[in-house]
Write the structure tokens for this entry.
Amino acid sequence: MPTSKVYTVSKRKKKGGWKAKESSVGVIAKGDNKDEVVQATAQIANLQKKASLRIEKENGELQEERSYPRGSGQPKVE
């Protein structure tokens, strides 16, 4: 079973704007617009065999978590 990559979109504290980090690589995207950073990171996550995207609010609390490919976090119904 492939290991899951974890991507996190969070507020940049010192320089402002938003950043996306991958757990083993570091910053993979950054920008002033949160939606654009989320979209770019989602495209990268969607190319992985298994990944999750954690999106934080401005205050650092978890806003949303997505799994890729879409639906991979849901149990299979047989």
The chain has one domain: 5-65. The two ends are 20 Å apart (CA to CA). The chain is about 15% helix and 40% strand. Residues 7 and 22 are 4 Å apart (CA to CA).
